[in-house]
Amino acid sequence: MKRRATMLMIVSLLVVGCRSSATIEPAATSAQEDPLPNAGLDLAVEVVADGLVNPLGLSALPDGRILIAEEGSGEDDLSAGVSMLMPDGSIGRVISGLPSGRDSGDLSGVPLVGVSPDGTTAYTAHFGSGRLLTVPVGRLSIDTPLGPDDLSSAMRPLNSVTLTNPFDITFDGAGVPVVSDASQNGVAIETDGGTTRFFHRFDRLENPDNPDLSIDPVPTGISRVDGEYLVTLTGGCPYPPGSGRLVAVDDQRNQRTVVEGLSMPIDVAVDEDGAIWILEFARFEEDASC
Question: How many whole angstroms separate alpha carbon 275 and alpha carbon 252?
Answer without folding.
Answer: 25
